[in-house]
From TrEMBL:
Pathway: Glycolipid biosynthesis; glycosylphosphatidylinositol-anchor biosynthesis. The keyword Transmembrane applies. This is Phosphatidylinositol N-acetylglucosaminyltransferase subunit C. InterPro entries: Plno_GlcNAc_GPI2 (IPR009450). It comes from Paragonimus skrjabini miyazakii. The chain crosses the membrane at residues 46-75, 81-101, 113-132, 144-162, 211-237.
Amino acid sequence: MCDSSGKINGAWEKVLYKDLGVPDNFVSPHFLSELRKNVYIRKYSLWSVIVDAGCIYQQLCCIVTFVTLYFYLLLDWASPSFIGFVLLLFLTVGYSFFWLLNRNCGRMIGTTFYIRTGLIIFAFDLFLAPVLHSLLATVSTDTIYALTVVFLLINWVSMDYITQSAEYSYESGSNTTSLSSSLLAALCLASRLPTPFHTFVLIAAGTTLFALWFSLVHLIRVIIVAILVDVSLFAVWL
């Protein structure tokens, strides 16, 4: 019930089946007291947005590099032996750098796992290159290029960019769709190359760019963030 001033005696309830002694259009001043705005909003700094956008741009650069290597092999602008040698050089430097960073972090098991996995993948690529080279030979070139565009677009869109950030731990199975689509794109383009050795080099390049590169990049980001935190703490201490 309400008093002579029109105020309710007692707690007001948002119900329609009780007679509270007030007009139908009465609204309590505490009606929106429990309303909260932007509860789960997350604020981003300009630097974090630039870094996250860099991950997306980096993946696009990997795709462009892979397509460029394909045309270099297709048009015979570079021999597969030369590209394979450059790829081997980058793999050696990358694995050495990865080993040194993991050694500083005390994660030697991860290094052994990646080396063993890489050797298995490249061995299968080498032995299955003749089969992979002729697997899609009967498909028209227009269809091959259309499928390649679709697969590379799926790779770019479905890439798990969250796990490439330094504040998240890398999950080995988070990029399954992205990696599978990139390997399918490599398989499609490999069918247009002249020899099985060209096929092996292209698939090995795709494996390096789309599978191994981001493991090293994530580790570098973790090390850089740790260094920046130490420098910040030292500056605050001074």
